[in-house]
Amino acid sequence: MPRSVNSVAKRARRKKVLKQAKGYFGRRKNVWTVAKNAVDKAMLYAYRDRKTKKRNFRALWITRINAGARLHGMSYSQFMGGLKANSIDLNRKVLADLAMNHPEAFAAIVNKVK
Q1: C-alpha span between 49 and 66 (Å, rounded)
Q2: Residue 80 belongs to some domain of the structure
Q3: Residue 90: in which H helix or E strand, if any?
Q4: Which SUPFAM superfamilies match (predicted)?
Q5: CB atoms within 10 A of CB 57
Q6: pLDDT grade for 13, boundaries at 50, 70 and 90
Q7: Does residue 10 sit within a domain?
Q8: Residues 76, 69 contacting (CB under 8 angstroms)
Q9: How far is CA 109 from CA 8, 70, 97, in A?
Q10: I need a labelling partner for 69 at 20 to 30 A (CA). Which of 27, 54, 105, 113 fits?
Q11: Which of 58, 59, 55, 19 is nearest to 39 (CA)?
């Protein structure tokens, strides 16, 4: 019995990967083996960096809150400790936005904490 090869599925699989490699430079966009490796690596980076993005934003928010708190004579840790003690439930994202864009509102929170 002759060997049966599912060329339709194989072609579809390759077209899918080459479509994902659209926009890559050189052979990475049109040579199957190179494109497959490039797309696999890109997917790994995308998965990893979805996690890293969360870390980076949290660090940015902490930096902004610290800068805002120090303008009013407090350190970041004193400020966050005071928030917890006064039962003020604002997350770091909101606090960072207030510190950057609404300094008068942030000053009111700092005064409440003091």
Answers
A1: 25
A2: yes
A3: none
A4: Ribosomal protein L20
A5: 13
A6: very high
A7: no
A8: yes
A9: 64, 13, 13
A10: 54
A11: 19
